[in-house]
Every structure is written in C-alpha cells, then in structure tokens.
C-alpha cells in the first residue's frame, strides 16, 4: 500500500511498470480482493498518472469518495 486513510478505509496504490506484467496483475487483484474482505477500498493509479497534473488524481479521488457508500 502506498497510502492508507483509516477514516475512509481507503488505499491508494501507485503502480509502476512492473504492475503491467500478468503475474503482478494477478497478485494485485488478489491483494485488492483481500483488502475488500476487510471493507477496505482500493484506487490504483499509474506512475504516469501521478507524474502528470495532480489535479486529475485529486478529481478522481473526490469522485470516488462522493460515490462511496457511507461507512
């Protein structure tokens, strides 16, 4: 996990190029499923998305939080 917000039960993952490999995609999916079992939601971004204007990341997180069920 790159970032975790306990109050929102939210993980933000920043994925580098290795996450494009099939085995890593499978591992990531398993990791996300395990977190989901505990009610922890995951948002994934690529390194490229983070390097580019951060406004897009902020907007995506805000939209996600607006659509998230209340805990």
Structural commentary:
The protein is of the alpha+beta class. It has helices spanning about 20-35, 45-50, 55-65; strands at about 5, 10-15, 40-45. The chain has three helices and three strands. It has a three-stranded mixed beta sheet, with helices on both faces. A hairpin with a 4-residue loop joins β1 and β2. The model has no long low-confidence stretch (mean pLDDT about 85).
The Cα radius of gyration reads 13 Å
The portion of residues assigned to helices is 40-55%
Structural class computed from helices and strand pairing: alpha+beta
Number of spatially distinct domains: 1
Mean pLDDT: 84
Please give the count of helices.
3
Low-confidence stretches: none
State the end-to-end distance: 21 Å
Order of helices and strands: EEHEHH
Largest sheet, if any? 3 strands, mixed
Strand count: 3
- Beta-strand fraction estimate: 15-25%
Strand order of the largest sheet: 1-2-3
- Note the overall shape: flat
Question: Would you spell out the secondary-structure blueprint of this structure?
Answer:
Layout: E1 3-5, E2 10-15, H1 22-37, E3 41-46, H2 47-51, H3 54-67
A few lines on this structure:
The chain is an alpha+beta fold and 71 residues long.
Question: Can you give keywords for this protein?
Answer:
about 70 residues; alpha+beta; three-stranded mixed beta sheet; 3 helices
């Amino acid at each position: 996990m790159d970032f975790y917000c306990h109050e929102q039960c939210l993980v933000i993952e920043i994925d580098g190029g290795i996450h494009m490999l099939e085995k890593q995609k499978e591992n990531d999916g398993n990791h996300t499923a395990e977190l989901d079992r505990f009610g922890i939601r995951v948002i994934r971004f690529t390194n490229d998305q983070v390097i580019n204007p951060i406004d897009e990341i902020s907007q995506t997180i805000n939209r996600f939080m607006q659509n998230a069920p209340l805990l």
